[in-house]
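Reviewers of the previous submission asked for a worked example of the structure-prediction workflow described in the proposal, so we include one complete record here. The input consisted solely of the amino acid sequence. No template or homolog information was supplied to the procedure at any stage.
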Amino acid sequence: TLTIPYIDSKGLTTQYIPDLLVLFKDGNICVWEIKPAAMLKDYDVQAKAKACRTYLRDTYKDRTIKYEFITENKLFKNTKEYTDFLNSIKGKDFSKKNAHSFSSETL
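From that input alone, the workflow returned the following structure tokens.
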């Protein structure tokens, strides 16, 4: 698990774990953070991103690891598609007890 310390909006040092570490077949690596576009200006969201970018730059000096936000704008064609998706999952249980594992062959 990639765990990065950062200072939150209350001035406390806490830990941040990015949503996804993506390893591509060509050797490129990306860290993806999934957030609604409306949250991108939030102090803590930006503090985590800054801490992660600094950590990646300082720790992996010999390679470039890209940090990127993935928002609904990248996942859906338009607002209607996004709201339809949100409505379709309302009330569903996504707890770990109901989680499914997928291999790359499944996807």
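The chain is about 30% helix and 20% strand. We consider this example representative of the routine output the project will generate in years two and three.
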